[in-house]
């Protein structure tokens, strides 16, 4: 079995059908729910809440699940749906759900609630729980602290393998993962790690300190989540331990959370590549007003940047008036330069994001781009020259071919260099988006084209 | 500790320094290597082979590592570096390394070798190993079969918990993961799964059949790797079991391999978004000729598509000759339409890739895009109108503002719809790349602009 739109649609229809009856059968509903995974129930619930706005039905479904299962399902809902659900529940009910949630999801949900609700809930929590929640909720969004969980298995230095094994068994129900264990000294400093696999094949009487790996890969609470995901991927980790400013271990980021981060970072990069601001939610769900705001900023800015292209054209008005046929090739030339430049920028931005390209590689990349873009320019000039002959004779063909090579080469170099310049000045290289690169190249393309045209057409 | 360019550079320098001596100290080298992770040594080795072309030194470093470690490091090298290494080793040495590699990496490397070498190696392998390798190497690239490993822990139906635990301990050294166990019946059919965590907290005498989860998430050998990564991410799996056409379990895809797939698929999507063909390797490493080939196809194609814009301009030559000031706004108008359209296309393409948007959402998305793009167009028209007044008077301002709204709206709708049309005709929606969308909109933008201009400027 795997994810399947059809079967989820069916499940949703069946649940809503049953709930629409005068006396819905609890047994039937709970049977149907038991057959499905929390992730899938979460998706169905999300649609019921967001598309159909049936909050009562959604709450009824949650109510049929065990508290543990309900907390699980809740964790799969996007923030706005979580808020709607929690808005329909009593504090007592919410407290029970919070208790069953993973500590990272608990903190996320908590951060969404308004001040009053938060205070009310905190007051009814046990001291230790309260402090843990407040701490986890206090880390800045997008950092290791914000995505980590405090439910990990720690082992005191000096324990034997058999004692450690006992501790794993005890912690098993609550920990996010029991497959990687962390050895802490009496100060809470992380001094070693070992896999459960290693523990299982070790002699029961051995000391964990003797079998643990001492050189632990870890990260700090305020490390960016993108970096965290990269480390997890690079070293194929099940979980990455997180250390606070005092060197104490405070949590772990698990592989599945790292994978979610990697996906949302890739989405952000792709959107940025087209000058779209960061969306908190999927494009099908963000409010229309938000979508407008996230798109309008660069679009309007680029309108003004495009005025430079216009100014270039105005400057060459005489050349254009004398040979209107030149305008025929304008979109083609600046379009080609823009496309080649956007390609070059994209290759660099993604190369930097994946760690394949670093600032130090600038010179090497420049040399390569010169060769590639030069070849591209020549190929495209050859393609366009015959059309130049057809439309305006030999002179125009020469102007157009020369311009094509120059514009593609120049555009590609702008596109390639911009990400490095941005990175150098600590601006996200992804700001070198296709629209920005295209606009920059449009303006220079106009100048190059009409300068070449003026030079060739002006009688000596 | 985490990944750090500086420390890797240092490590590389130290290793090369030591190897350059007349009698390099093996102890020193092996000490330095022992301090570092296989992933990091792999990166250093890769640079030594590819940037510095020092194969002898690379082989010397591999030689100092234990066979197990060397196999591990080899697994982190890109294909071309692996080939260089293997080219410098005897069959006997290669066989030893292959034996220690994970079955998935072994098959990948094997697929890179030439026919003769493969035959030679196969002849010297044990029957069972040979068959396993041949099978794994036979799956098509980009499928579950090609990325799965056959090193998983299977448990026979009917075993007790304590027997299963014993089997985990026995398999621990060789399995990719021991944390998810798969229960097979006598035909090799997958009938259940359980986590090691579950096994550990269960009564030793209990039967695995009674505690296993019977509804297993699995995938088929020929499922696309992108889909595989999505399933692993969606259900937060440690590993996803893979089933052959006869319903028998043949392997697992582990979470770290799924994460690598997700990253390379995201890179491919980003490149496609800028009309760049699929690169087998990082942009800093692919040969220049390949880079040229992967970029030139669409660029040249779009040169010809751009001729339509030219043709549009030629058609309106009279209008342009009469009012050359109109050309001033041409790059700005078609640029804005292209940018807005590329944004809309990108949002849809990524939405489809992450599963947020499906073909069924077409109507909803169209309605949203109408509202968003309409607002964007009006905002941009307001921004550009004053410049229209300044450059050409009121008539030009009205022409430009009207054209802006129409082009942005029309362009956004083209950009939004194209991915759905492509998906409908089973073409990858990512083909609706920014350059393609921009070119399409350029041509229609020219027509819209000059049609409006002609209509308004022509005396009644």
From TrEMBL, chains A, B:
Q: Where is the CBS domain?
A: 148-210, 212-268
Q: Where in the cell is it found?
A: Cell membrane; Membrane
Q: What is its main location?
A: membrane
Topology relative to the membrane, per the entry? Answer: Multi-pass membrane protein
Write down the InterPro entries for this protein, in alphabetical order.
CBS_dom, CBS_dom_sf, Mg_transptr_MgtE_intracell_dom, MgtE_N_sf, MgtE_transporter, SLC41_membr_dom, SLC41_membr_dom_sf
Keywords annotated in UniProt: CBS domain, Cell membrane, Magnesium, Membrane, Metal-binding, Transmembrane, Transmembrane helix, Transport
Is Membrane one of the keywords? yes
Q: Which domain of life is it from?
A: Bacteria
Annotated GO molecular function terms are: magnesium ion transmembrane transporter activity; metal ion binding
Indicate the transmembrane segments per the record: 296-316, 322-349, 370-389, 395-422, 434-457
SMART domains from the UniProt entry: CBS (SM00116), MgtE_N (SM00924)
Q: Which GO terms describe its cellular component?
A: plasma membrane
Q: What does this protein do?
A: Acts as a magnesium transporter.
PANTHER family referenced in this protein's UniProt entry, alphabetically? MAGNESIUM TRANSPORTER MGTE
What does the sequence similarity comment in the record state about its family?
A: Belongs to the SLC41A transporter family.
Assembly and partners? Homodimer.
Protein name per Swiss-Prot or TrEMBL: Magnesium transporter MgtE
């Amino acid at each position: 079995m795997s994810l399947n739109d059809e079967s989820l649609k069916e499940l949703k229809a069946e649940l809503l059908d049953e709930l629409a009856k005068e006396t819905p059968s609890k047994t039937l509903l709970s049977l149907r729910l038991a057959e499905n995974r929390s992730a899938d129930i979460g998706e169905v619930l999300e649609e019921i809440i967001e598309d159909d706005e049936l909050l009562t039905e959604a709450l009824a479904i949650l109510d049929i699940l065990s508290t543990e299962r309900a907390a699980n399902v809740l964790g799969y809902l996007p923030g706005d749906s979580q808020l709607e659900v929690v808005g329909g529940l009593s504090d007592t009910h919410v407290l029970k759900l919070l208790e069953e949630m993973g500590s990272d999801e608990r903190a996320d949900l908590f951060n969404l609630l308004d001040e009053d609700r938060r205070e009310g809930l905190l007051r009814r929590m046990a001291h230790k729980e309260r402090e843990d929640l407040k701490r986890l909720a206090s880390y800045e969004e997008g950092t290791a602290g914000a995505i980590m969980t405090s439910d990990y298995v720690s082992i005191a230095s000096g324990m034997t393998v058999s004692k450690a094994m006992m501790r794993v068994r005890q912690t098993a129900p609550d920990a996010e993962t029991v497959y990687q264990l962390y050895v802490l000294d009496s100060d809470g400093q992380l001094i070693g790690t070992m896999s459960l696999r290693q523990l299982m094949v070790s002699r029961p009487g051995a000391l964990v300190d003797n079998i643990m790996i001492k050189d632990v890969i870890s990260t700090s609470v305020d490390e960016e989540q993108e970096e965290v995901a990269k480390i997890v991927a690079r070293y194929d980790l099940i979980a990455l331990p997180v250390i606070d400013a005092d060197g104490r271990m405070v949590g772990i980021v698990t592989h599945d959370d790292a994978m979610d981060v990697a996906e949302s970072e890739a989405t952000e990069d792709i959107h940025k590549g087209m000058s779209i601001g960061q969306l908190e939610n999927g494009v099908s769900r963000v409010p229309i007003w938000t979508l407008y705001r996230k798109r309008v900023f660069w679009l309007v800015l680029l309108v003004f940047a495009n005025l430079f292209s216009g100014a270039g054209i105005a400057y060459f008005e005489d050349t254009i008036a004398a040979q209107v046929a030149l305008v025929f090739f304008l979109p083609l030339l600046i379009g080609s330069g823009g496309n080649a430049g956007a390609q070059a920028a994209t290759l660099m931005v993604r190369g930097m994001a994946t760690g394949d390209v670093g600032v130090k590689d600038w010179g090497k990349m420049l040399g390569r781009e010169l060769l590639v873009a030069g070849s591209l320019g020549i190929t495209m000039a050859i393609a366009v020259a015959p059309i130049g002959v057809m439309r305006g004779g030999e002179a125009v063909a020469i102007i157009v071919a020369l311009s094509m090579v120059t514009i593609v080469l120049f555009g590609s170099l702008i596109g390639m260099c911009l990400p490095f310049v941005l990175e150098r000045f600590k601006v996200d290289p992804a700001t070198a988006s296709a629209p920005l690169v295209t606009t920059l190249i449009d303006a220079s393309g106009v100048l190059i084209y009409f300068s070449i045209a003026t030079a060739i057409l002006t009688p000596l």
